[in-house]
Amino acid sequence: MPVARMDEGSFGGRGGIRLFFRRWRPEPEGGGAPVVIAHGLAEHSGRYERLGSFLAGRGVPVWAFDHRGHGRSDGPRVHVDRFDDYLEDLDRFLDRVQADAGQTPVLLGHSMGGLIALSYALARPQRLAGLVLSSPWLRTRVPISTFRRAVARVLSGVWPRFRFPIADQGAGISRDTEVVRQYREDPLVARSVTARWFVSCEQEQARVMERAGALEVPVLFLVAGSDTLVWPEATRAVYEAARGPKEWHLYEDRYHEVFNDPGYEEVMETLWRWLVARGLAQPPGV
């Protein structure tokens, strides 16, 4: 079996902003299409070490970058001038990945990264060999008052970088108390968002839901059934509307981060089997 080796680097996103990335390379090199991870709100690529090592250990190269304003990337914390900033950054990263690997990548998006990944797949399907959505953030389950939404819309126009604190999400990400502790103590996890970021994301959620019927990229849905942060029902609506090859897995008792919740091994094996079945990874000995 290959051994995973992790290295780091950076690249220029839209506007020349420096974006940090990690990659997990199999040694020796395998025959799998590269998997690109788009992480969730407030977190960073370093929280995907286990998944990156798992796939690289089976011959699949894995790349993940910190979105602008996240982790070790530059930019105001959790802020975008427009949602398309995320898509343009991702487009540049995919250029780098494909040039290195020589193959069209698979895009895996978790939570906010799932929203970014789905939006990208709808806009530029020819760039992807497949799409994996892990508890995508298509509708917020955490209560947000009508008043707060109205204030955010006003501030987005007149004071776009006004900051709102992020409610503690730790208890909702995993049933593993060690995962929760590490998340809460992680200095790279952001604690606030801007008004423009919030409004831009909610507008993109609405656009994605409206356009879901145009989704033709092969897609694997990995959904936490006991998610308290996002609504699984919104993800199911996208699954029902998608026209391309699709596969649905609902993990009834799981919390939001299905790759960090107890039983994550089953989820990783499901992902692996899907990659092999679609010819995007090679089983051992091939």
Tally the structural domains: 1
Instruction: Bin the helical content.
Output: 25-40%
Q: What would you call the structural class? A: alpha/beta
CATH topology label: Rossmann fold
Indicate the overall shape. globular
- Roughly how many Å apart are the termini? 11 Å
User: How many β strands by DSSP?
Assistant: 10
Unreliable residue runs = none
Q: Give the CATH class.
A: Alpha Beta
Largest sheet: 8 strands, mixed
Just name the CATH architecture: 3-Layer(aba) Sandwich
Order of helices and strands: EEEHEHEHEHEHHEHEHEH
Strand content: 15-25%
CATH superfamily: Alpha/Beta hydrolase fold, catalytic domain
Strand order of the largest sheet: 1-2-4-3-5-6-9-10
Average the pLDDT over all residues and give the rounded result.
Answer: 95
Tally of alpha and pi helices: 9
Characterization of this structure:
The chain has one domain (3-277): Alpha/Beta hydrolase fold, catalytic domain (Rossmann fold), CATH 3.40.50. By secondary structure, the chain is of the alpha/beta class. Strands 1-2-4-3-5-6-9-10 form an 8-stranded mixed sheet, with helices on both faces. The protein has a two-stranded antiparallel ribbon with strand order 7-8. It is globular, with a radius of gyration of 18 Å. It has helices at residues 49-56, 84-101, 112-123, 146-158, 170-173, 177-185, 195-211, 232-241, 264-277, and strands at 3-12, 18-27, 35-38, 62-65, 106-110, 130-134, 163-165, 192-194, 219-224, 246-251.
